[in-house]
Write a structure and sequence with these properties.
This protein is of the alpha/beta class. 37% of the residues lie in helices and 19% in strands. Helix 14 links the parallel strand 13 and strand 14.
Length: 487
Amino acid sequence: MRRANDAGSDTVECRLDFLRDLPSEKDLQTIFGGSQGELIATLRPVRQGGRYDGDEGQRLDILRKCAQMGARYVDIEIDVPRQDWPDAEIILSHHDFERCPVDLDDILQRMEASDAAVNKVAFAANGPEDAFRALDFIRASQKPAMAMAMGEAGVPSRILAGKFGAFGTFASLDEKSSSAPGQLTIDEMKNLYRWDEIGPETFVCGVVGCPVAHSMSPAIHNAAFATTNIDGVYVPLLAHGGEDGEKNFRRFMDALLARKWMNWRGLSVTLPHKEHALAYLDKRNCDALAIKIGAINTITFETDAAPRGDNTDYAAAIECLCRSMSIDRANLAGSRVAVLGAGGVARSIVAGLAHCGAEVTIYNRTVSRSETLATEFACGWGPLDEAVRFDGEIIVNCTSVGMSPNVDASPLESIPHSVKVVFDTIYNPLDTRLLQAARDAGCAIVTGLDMFVNQAAAQFELWTGIDAPIDVMRNVVMEKLSEKDEC
């Protein structure tokens, strides 16, 4: 409790059902009789997702004593009869660890009709649209309210609750002490997502994909917003992929666009939804080259217009190459470039290079894939093991060979003598075996970090209309990668 107060919490919930043994009156006096700020007493029964499986009368008696000894609020489940409530300010709660309740509106009406001080629901989220349902609950409540969509898909409901006037939200002291799935730490809420600065006018951006839990994008964009004093917040949005990936993405987008009041400004789109995003949007509002690539990674929302789709991946890659060679895009025409790999990243970069007039040869372990991609963009092609005999100026690695944890691997045994620039799209590790070999051969190098930061910076500028703080964004990525290395 002291640690929570020191970390900046407004209120501390005491989950008594997490204790090994039931607390004695002396224990309760120790917990609630001090000056630890505002306290919530909770003794959650198993039937509502807690750990207490004892006598109901004894449970309610303990909660009454908590109120007598100084608890400001007592959490009581909606199925407890009114005559059994303690004499305290009641947080009336309902929990569903399986799904978003189909009768959520009815639950709210029952809570509104009661004399409880605070309405609270917590339910499992199957997609980010369920997080939006939690925000609907907060907005519709006439009383102070809390609503948490649990699990990774529900994280936005925790971050954005304050924007819509929530009574509060829950955070844990650290990653190991969460009391519900998807609960963020107080450090993440306060510092990464800037909970205290989110208000009614804050615009929202986010990254949608699967997985997104370890995405660096929230850290990058929220740091950029903070540095430029922009009233925005950037959240992770887990929309599952697989066979239902496109359907899941469409359901999420439909739910988002139906809620103009959320004030969404932009989306970063990552795997596996880049193709789904292009299919969802009106192609008349999409970048022409992104349409040819067949994928977008950026959606921009405007007040009186349809969402716009762009692909900042290829633009970032081309910008990185030109900067390393001190040339502009026009000077790429006629340059001979080897692209290693034939996946999504390779497709974006090949499209950008071909658009600039470069002479591209695609090398891939599965030759049929390199041939298919090469035919589409009028490029040369060949098997990956022939890339060591490439006679050109630029090599771009779009394979995952050399990515952590396989840091000793390289897609090339040696760097061809004609090559002047080597670009590795991998950014973890920053200095791959391929780049080490390129440096030893006297080549200019371009890292995956450069591309990653540049594509994020381009998104930031589309959404805000101001120059991105690239140095800040770069430093955030390097700091995050350093933390992973230490782990």
